[in-house]
Amino acid sequence: MLLSLVGVAIFIAVIALIIVAMSTKPYPDLGRYDSEKYFLNEKQEKCLFPSINDPASVELSVIVPAYNEEERLPMMMDEALEYLEERKKKLKSFTYEVIVVDDGSKDKTTQTAQSYCNKYGSDKIRVLTLAKNRGKGGAIRLGMFSARGRYLLFADADGASKFSDFTKLENEMKNMKKDSSNRAVVCGSRAHLEEESIAQRSFFRTILMKGFHFVVWFLCVRGIKDTQCGFKLLTREAAVLLFSNLHVERWAFDVDMLFLAQYFNIPVGEVAINWTEIEGSKMVPVFSWIQMGKDIILIRLRYFLGAWKITEKSKLE
Fold this sequence. Notes:
transmembrane; 10 helices; globular; endoplasmic reticulum; 9 strands; Glyco_trans_2-like; seven-stranded mixed sheet; about 15% strand; two-stranded antiparallel sheet; Nucleotide-diphossugar_trans
């Protein structure tokens, strides 16, 4: 009887693996709709976005994925631009751009972001409006592929991360030893705030959080305490390789990105940053952790089976 049950379980597992392998696209979709190739400048003229294939022409690109962020985006943009403009005054050679990626919002996120373009000019602020919702990872990917920066930072639209902490990531990046292709990644981290957050969570939510961290560590990414913080800095060379291979477009995309970074032996640093809980999060804690846990298991499984392919050739090439 026991042997029969084991045999049935193995049979079901094999069928499940075959289904996963056969239903998986081997390479990520790097395409975009025609409307996503353009932005409006301050004169409301339609302009073509540059390509990640082009040489860098500014020092820093800030990618801000935004979905229904009409209300929270202004606080983040005001803080970021205050820092960036002040830095430009002190260092004339410093150049930057902010690309707000509207991920198919149903509110006035695009109009809100465009108002900053009208004020600061399209050389500094650009809005990429996606034709449909792709998920945070998908939105960041298209923002990266439209960026001009030597360094590329993605930052959440809610302003939970203190933007001036970019300096911490930048210093870590400068002190890191890059690989032979000038690739490196620096992650902002909230791990130092974990004890305080545990005290405010229920026992059940704490168990789920710990379980999620264990699954990430065991299956995909080791050596990084906080994989999910939405404040990460990449060199242009790292960004193009990683986002050309990124398969996950929704919440678990950070884990996929860092898994790929470790696969390619790209140096990854981690720096503690200031972080504040902001109301209006799109994540439902219990459901989101379970969903991401499932996604992480599938990430490992699909790479293990070879259902997802990884290529050394990036979009840049």
